[in-house]
Design goal:
It is a multi-pass membrane protein. By secondary structure, this protein is mainly alpha-helical. It contains 15 helices and six strands. Among the domains are: about 35-55 and about 65-155, no CATH class; about 345-390, no CATH class.
């Protein structure tokens, strides 16, 4: 995806150059955040409280799937908060931009665009970053759990890993947001136009509309929003970021984005032709600050995917086990047979008698094994209770941590080198366009040379004529 993002931007440069040349805009120049953190913290508290409530629910279906139920409801609530805050952020961005008092309209648009993108990007992705990199990282361990207000345990990841929670978060948010955007883009103008037609019928009678000229019918359509295509650009940029930044955790994101864009192209065409007034054209050399934002997202996607693969997934722990601790340790192999015993090696031993009073199990497990259980297992790399440092980190933990950091550094440098190589190999201008521009420049220079030569010849003839006339005045 990092390579694709780079190729996409490089080929967009080429396409932009062709469009700018066709419209004669090559040489044209135009004349001239605390609420998000509070919302994320609220979602975290909701997840912490809800998972405990669902775990003690009377219905076995909800009790056995408390983690999934908590994640699903939290995502839906988070989506509603995102939609509400988007309205607030637009007004805040407009206020802050006006307070800056930009000198030109271009500077005003760039400032407003950057603020709106940052507000909505953080609003959309803050909870996703929390799940990817913070969920379950600071919960403590059995017997020493960290608690919120000394009451609720901090939420942990699903037993299969945090990727499940991250995948659910991205899938639900992406589907709901794209569905809502398409509804608002088409449904809102439809409702407004229907209401306008209803008012016209009430004022002039049902037959009066038939005699309206076409320009008056067009005038009764919805005007284009005050920011032009800003909302369309913003939607695509946010979708680009959502698709590339966490693609390692949700590989279906590009497919969902493709299906949405296929549908949205037709919806936008219908909206522009039948529901909106004809927009006023304006000259633009390129997409402005949006391209810089796309490049920034491409760089951020490399970093986040490196952390997702190294920290959120089990890719690195499995490799460390295969090469260092598994049956094939020291043999340079990492096949399926080398993973035998991995689950057991990823679990630590805990003595049940070391539980806190508030965390003691309701039964001693004798109904399963016939005798009371003395030990249980939990997912972590910690020493057993009878070691010199009970529940301290094992050597395997530090090996995994070092391997994760090494992977992040190597992965980022490798991908960035590939990105820069691709950027260097793909020229910004297609060869045929470069040839056309050179020929056009040559023809312009030739025309200027011919015009200058013609002017000099004309002046020479006039000087000869004036000189001859002047000579004839004297006897």
């Amino acid at each position: 995806m990092a390579v694709w993002a780079t190729v996409f931007l490089e080929f967009w440069k080429r396409r932009r150059a062709v469009i700018a040349y066709d419209w004669d805009l090559i040489d044209w120049e135009e004349e001239e955040i605390c609420v998000v953190i509070a919302a994320v913290f609220g979602i975290v508290i909701y997840r912490v409280v809800t998972v405990s409530t669902f775990a003690a629910f009377k219905w076995a279906l909800i009790r056995n799937n408390s983690q999934v139920a908590t994640t699903g409801t939290a995502v839906c609530i988070n989506f509603c908060i995102i939609m509400l805050l988007n309205v607030l952020y637009e007004k805040v961005a407009l206020l802050l931009t006006n307070l800056e008092q930009p000198r030109t309209e271009s500077e005003w648009e760039n400032s407003f665009t950057l603020k709106m993108f940052l507000f909505q990007f953080v609003n959309l992705n803050s909870s996703t970053f929390y799940i990817a990199f913070f969920l379950g990282r600071f919960t403590g361990h059995p017997g020493a759990y960290l608690r919120l207000i000394n009451r609720w345990r901090l939420e942990e990841c699903h037993p299969s890993g945090c990727l499940i929670d991250l995948c659910m978060q991205m899938g639900i948010i992406m589907v709901l947001k794209q569905t809502w955007n398409n509804f608002m883009e088409l449904g809102y103008p439809l409702i407004q136009n229907w209401w306008t037609r209803r008012k016209v019928r009430q004022e002039h009678g049902p037959e009066r509309k038939i005699s309206f000229p076409q320009w008056e019918k067009d005038y009764n359509l919805q005007p284009m929003n005050a920011y032009g295509l800003f909302d369309e650009y913003l939607e695509m940029i946010l979708q680009f970021g959502f698709t590339t930044i966490f693609v390692a955790a949700f590989p279906l994101a590009p497919l969902l984005a493709l299906l949405n864009n296929i549908i949205e192209i037709r919806l936008d065409a219908y909206k522009f032709v039948t529901q909106w007034r004809r927009p006023l054209a304006s000259r633009a050399k390129d997409i402005g600050i949006w391209y810089g934002i796309l490049e920034g997202i491409g760089i951020l996607s490399v970093i986040t995917n490196a952390f997702v693969i190294a920290i959120t997934s089990d890719f690195i722990p499995r490799l460390v086990y295969a090469y260092k601790y598994g049956p094939c340790a020291g043999q340079g192999e990492a096949g399926q047979k080398c993973m035998v015993g991995y689950v057991n090696a990823s679990l630590s031993v805990f003595r049940i008698s070391d539980f806190e009073n508030r965390s003691e199990p309701e039964s001693d497990g004798s109904e399963f094994s016939g005798t009371p259980l003395k030990y249980c297992r939990y997912r972590d790399y910690r020493d057993p209770p009878h070691s010199l440092v009970p529940y301290g980190y094992t050597l395997q933990f530090w090996h995994v941590l070092a391997a994760r950091l090494a992977f992040i550094i190597v992965f980022e440098h490798l991908v960035f080198c590939i990105k820069h190589l691709i950027s260097y190999l793909i020229p910004d201008l297609p060869k045929d366009l470069r040839d056309r521009m050179r020929r056009e420049k040559y023809l312009i220079q030739e025309m200027m040379y011919e015009a200058e030569l013609e002017r000099l010849q004309k002046e020479r003839k006039e000087r000869k004529k004036n000189g001859k006339a002047h000579h004839n005045e004297w006897p």
